[in-house]
Structure formats: structure tokens, C-alpha cells
Amino acid sequence: MSFFKKKGSCHEAATVAASGAKKVALVGNPNVGKSVLFNALTGAYVTVSNYPGTSVEVSRGSTAINGEEFEIIDTPGMYSILPITEEERVAREILLTERPHLVLHVLDARNLERMLPMTLQLIEAELPVVLVVNIMDEAARMGLEIDIPLLSKRLGIPVIGAATAKKIGVPEIRAAIAGSSSCAVPPFTYSRLMEGDIAEICQSLRGEYILSKKAIALLLLQDDAEVANLVRETEGVWFPGVQTVVREKRFERRESFHLDLSMERKAIVKGILDGAFKAPEKRVVTLAERFSRWTVRPATGIPLLLIVLYFGLYQFVGVFGAGTLVDFLEGKVFEEHFNPWIIEIVKLYVPWGMLQELLVGEYGIITLGFRYAVGIILPIVATFFLFFSVLEDSGYFPRLALLVDRVFKTMGLTGRAVIPMVLGFGCDTMATMVTRTLETVRERVIATVLLALAIPCSAQLGVIMSLLSQTPGALLTWGVCLLLIFLLVGLLAAKVVPGETPMFYMEIPPMRLPQFGNVLTKTYTRMQWYFMEILPLFILASVLLWLGKITHFFEKMIEAMTPVMASLGLPKESAVAFIFGFFRRDYGAAGLYDLQTKGLLNARQLTVAAVTLTLFIPCVAQFLIMKKERGWKVAIAIGLFVSGFAFGSGWLLNRFLLATQLL
Amino acid sequence: MRCGFCGHEFEEHEGNVGCKNCPMSSGCKMVKCPRCNYENPPEPALIKGLKKVFSAKKKTN
After folding, report:
1. Is the residue at B33 inside a domain?
2. For A399, which of A154, A202, A234, A295 could close a Cys bridge (C-beta 3.0–4.6 Å)?
């Protein structure tokens, strides 16, 4: 805890990097154009590395102004100098340990009122701040007027209006970097009561700090654990005195302190903006904005989600993609025309039986691997990716994250965990990697378990939808089972693993009508990537299965799994789908599809098999990434738990369906 | 490019850095958003090439 310790004024604090360059830190909320400004200032010579001891990435680059070298640091997005997320913690640490010559606070001109409170915090911390009011072009288009000189006068710091994406304001920013930095004396004060409390704490502080004593006092009052530790170290024997004053003030204000401070800062911002910011009198609420509100409110958001799932997943992917398109490609093109033709050709020109079997046999590369990939998986993922791209392009996903935040909190997660969960519907492997963005180890473990257990990947989901969409009862049972298991495991995990649930902040981009070209490009790219990835794997799996068949190993495995299949009420041939599932989730689901088209499964068996297979062990790639992210012990524990849980659930479901005769 | 999840705008090379830790990165062409880690499909080379041709034509006109 060496940061925050102050050495003299901020002029002295103007740090010189090891290379001799002065440091300039870009700070601000996410999505305000910091990275665009960073690129405009530094050009292509940039290093990006993880901040020591964290998984947060920080970009650094250099620029020369008037012959002098400056190091530019693009800090992770932060909303306040009181950190909540790991990104904010890293951003604050950079600000304080690297002691920049200049802090460029970049904010969005369209959200000036919301973002200015952080400027106030930087000023009251007595950091050498220059304010960059970015995205001025968009603000002007919206009819917003900002008086930059007046804003600068009222804040007491240099303020630059910019549109960095169009390089507007960049020369002024470069001039500000080259100019001498100075600490602003805050030209604003809080209420008498608040100032009195701050003054009492300031008087009890005897040490020297990088931040002003006023900022330290406010952070202590806001219960910042890192600052409390630092003050303990700095004050030594005087710390109990400081602690008593802080405790007294916090007790007097109890829960209302955060709210009081926030309200006072808002009032100061309003005063600063009075006359310096003008918005058009009549603000038209667009249909997109109205729709956006509907999607995040539970009363309207949940029915909308169900509509999206019904038309998007069930009708478009399930009925059209996996029904009509697969029937045509797999049923007509492959089964009726292509397979008989290729079998005839191979038998005519390839005299060896073994090779014939490898190419066009029961598990042949062409008749099984290629047919699965092109005839079954491709049309399903094509429709799924098309639907996914439409949703993605409309800006629906972050709204979904907000909608389910409350449910996720009951499971020890936050809305932030929706990101890996939504990603999991695309690819669970990537989603498992994304769990590292969650704040606590507890959240990461819970999210990894849920991903491995109850979130089917895109191809698996598509094939399962296609299988079950012909039997609506089976589809409903599958959906209810997975939802219940997801909630049950999440709730249990939240009980077993103790700890606090962190807060959730998320920047919401505007809702927009998907662009046709964009959607097609994304769908095409995803399909191309997916096809290139699965085809070799499907071929490899076919070869392995062929090897297993000619060595009779495969039959032995099926025999070995027969009692397990019997306990689930499934025919022994179902073992094939589970063996396929070891290679890839979708391969297993495609195997199930094959069994059903051969008429080997009734509705009950189909439902049991689909539930067990969805819950069943993650594919090889996901297992490897679990090992990489969580370590061998946790990965093996999750693998064993998931497999046991899947078969246990399958067994229970079979018993339940047999007893109730529901299906 | 613009992230399909959070709307964050970033350069393709910034996103590719996040992919390096993934064991599937050699075969996968996705670009991860530096802000939320959402994987975004990059614009295919063919479409980039076509855009360049059209923008060059516009400039000459």
C-alpha cells in the first residue's frame, strides 16, 4: 500500500518516467472516446499489457510535442475515484502511483451533467486536470449548446471542446499537454454541515498524501478500505484519533452519507452548468428510446423477451432453420441424392473395404462427418447467427443484462455475469474465458459452473431446438428443467460460497434498427469461422469413431454405457450421442438428431436424452479453458460435478415422466 | 469497429490483444472488445477490399 503517499505539491509530482518522459493519464467513463484520443495522440507505437497482479489491460504509448517526449496512458473506464470494479481500482492506482504530469479527463458532451461529478472529484483531489469535452459534433447535432470558456472559468481548469474521432480539438489537447500543469483550487464548496465534517477529519490527519486531505476525508467517510489502510499506515499512532472522528461522522449520517454527497455534487454541477449548457426545450422521445425502456422493465421486458425467444429461436431457428432447411438439405440433398451417389462412386473406385468404410460407412468422413456439418449443423447455425446478429446489432443484449440483474443477484452474481451467460449461447469456451471480467473469485466460480452445466452453445441449442420443436411438450419440459436447474444450482452456489454481491454498472448504447449489411456481414463471418472450425473436427471425430469401430473399442464403450443408458430409460444406441458429445457439444446433439430420425426415441426418451446431453460434460475446448482459468483442481471438480449432476437429473426426470405419464 | 454488446468503439488491433490468451485464438478470427470482452466478428477481407475499391472510386469522382 505505497500509493497515495504525497511528496510536496502537484508541480513536484509531475512524474518523469524511467525513459525520461512525463506521463499523461487519460481518464473518464467507458465509451467517451479515450481510446480514440489515445490513438490520435500516440499513433501506432503502443504497448498493451496486463496491469501487474490483475487481468485488466492498460495501453501505453508515447508522443513528442515541441521536441519533448510524453508517455500517454489509456486507463480503464472509471465512474468515480471511489472504485467499485477491478478496472476502476486499476485506473485509480495508475492515477496515484504513476503520479502523472497531467490528467486528461475525457467526457461525453451529450452526458455532461452525469459525468461532471467525477471532474469535481479530480479537482478536489488537487490533481493537475484538463477537461476534454468530447463528442461535441454529436452534441451539436442534438441541439445541445455548451459554453466552453464559461465552463472553464467556473471549474477553474482548462476545458477543451473536441470531437476526437474527427481529430477536432487534438491540436489544443497537445498544446495543453505541453503546457505547464497546475493544481486547481476547487472553486466550489459543499454545504456548511458537509464542509464542517470534512474539516474535522482533515484536522485529525497529520501525514502527507498524494491526494488532497479533503479527498482523503471524503473517501474515508465513504468507507474506502484501501484509503483506510493507507491512513492507518501513514498516521501510525494518530490513526485511532482519525478513526474516532470518521466513525463519529459516519454514525451521525449513517446510511444517508453517500446520497447526501451525491446530491450535493449534483447541485454543484447544476450550478456550474447553469447558463453554460443549453438543451433544446422540447426533447422528443423517440420510438427507440421508448422501446428501450420497455425492454428493461420486468413488466414489459419479460413478455418482450418471451416474444423474442418464441419468434427468434423457436419459429425462425427451430421450425424454419432446423426444420424446413435441415429437412431439405439433410433429407433431400444428402440422404436422397448426394449420399447414394458418393457411396456408389467410392465403392466403384476404392476397392478396399476398410477405406470404403472410412469414407462412406456408418461413421464415414463423408456420410457422417460432412453430412452432419453441412446438412444439419450449417443451416441451424446460419439461422441462429442471423437471429443473433439482428439482436446484437439492435443493442438488445445490454438491456437483457439489466433486465436479469435482479434474478442474478439472488444467485450471488450481478447483471455483469449476463455477458458471459449470453456469450455462452454462442460458444461456452469463449464465455468461460470472459468470466475473468467478473469481480470476485466467487462470482467467477459460480459463473463457470453454470456455463459448464446449464448453458447450451449455439449449435447444440439449435440442434436441440430442431429436435424438440416437433414435440412442443418435450420442448417445454426441456426449457423448464434447464431453467430450474440453472436457478437451483445458482441459489445453492450463492448459499455455499459466502461473500457480498458487488454492484453492477453498465453503459447502455442506444437502441437502433439493425443495418441489413452489417447483419449479413456478421452472420457470414461467424458462419465462415464456425464452418472452418467444425469441419476438420467433425472429420477427425469420424476417423476416431471409424477407428473405434474397426477395433471394436466403440462397441465395448457402448456396451459399457448400456447400464447407464438403461437407468435413464434410453436405448443403448443413445450412448453414441454421448460419446460424440465428448468431442463437441453439437456433435452429440447431431447424433441425437440421427437417432430420432431413425425412430429410436419416443417423446419421453427424447426429452430425457436432450436434458442429460445439454447438462452433460463440457466439450474438450471448454474443459481446457476451465483448467486454464480456474486450475486443474477446480476444472476436474466442475467436470465431475457436471457429469454426475447431468446423469442424476436425467434419471430423476425419467422417473418423474414415467410416474406422471406427462410425455 | 463498434462492439456489438456494449457499443464501445475500438481499433481491431486493440481487441485482438485480448484474444491472445485464448487457446482457440489461432483458428478463431473473433475480436474481443477491450471493455466488456464480447467477441465481435471482424469485417471479412473481401468486404474490406470491396469498400476500399468503392471509396477509391468515390474519391476519383
Report:
1. yes
2. A295
